[in-house]
Design brief:
four-stranded mixed sheet, 3 domains, 49% helix, Ribosomal Protein L9, domain 2, flat, Ribosomal Protein L9, domain 1, alpha+beta
């Protein structure tokens, strides 16, 4: 179904935009919440007015919340948790927990729905966006570390992952080089076989010799 947005909707569009959305999403959420309306000719005529009004409201919110964004941006939020040997948490760090931690650090009240993250279920360092407005999305750093250790242990996990990735990359490059050398060696051997077995004017190719060798085997 096609709808016209009446308000800004994160990850979908700005007020006045016409979007094609799933029927269920439109009928069960966007329209009942007053975020959108069916894109009928009558509604479409109001698009410019809605867009202008939303632009003014967005500018007001951006100015009002600019200082809040500055206070939130770059925050480091540590969470000591219980986790298994693989680093998987016994539970998770939820959006509500992150919102509460932000409020504790800054005295700024954040709704958990403004925290753009799935529940965090692994040890490590996670970047999470906080949706203040369509234009203001400051990021915080969520440090999830094992109980009894220090927050630095979570950063150590990142270093280990980087090293492992480099080892895998180096191995892949080495393997590619070896395969290329083997392919070149096979081509040389085939060329020598053609030269040794061929007669003047012989038009057999390396592929022909390879087929003969395979037949003999």
């Amino acid at each position: 179904m096609k709808v016209m947005l009446l308000k800004d909707v994160y990850n979908l569009g700005r007020a006045g935009d016409v979007k094609k959305v799933a029927d269920g999403y439109g009928r069960n959420y966007l329209i009942p919440q007053g975020l959108a309306a069916l894109a009928t000719p009558g509604v479409m005529k109001q698009a410019e007015r809605i867009r202008d009004s939303a632009t003014q409201e967005r500018a007001r919110l951006n100015q009002e919340l600019g200082a809040v964004a500055e206070r939130i941006s770059g925050l480091e939020l540590p969470f000591a948790v219980k986790a298994g040997d693989t680093g998987r948490l016994y539970g998770s760090v939820t959006t509500a927990m992150i919102a509460e931690a932000i409020e504790k650090e800054t005295e700024v009240q954040i709704d958990r729905r403004q925290v753009d993250s799935q529940p965090l279920k692994m040890l490590g360092v996670h970047s999470v966006s906080i949706r203040l407005t369509m234009d203001l999305n400051p990021e915080v750093t969520v440090v999830v570390y094992r109980e009894g250790e220090t927050p630095e242990s979570a950063y150590a996990l990142i270093a280990e992952v980087v090293v492992e990735a480099e080892v895998v990359e180096d191995f892949a490059e080495l393997r590619a080089e070896l395969e290329a050398e083997e392919s070149e060696l096979e081509s040389q051997e085939l060329a020598e076989a053609v030269e040794d077995e061929g007669l003047p004017g012989d038009e057999r190719t390396a592929e022909d010799v390879q087929e003969e060798i395979s037949d003999q085997a």
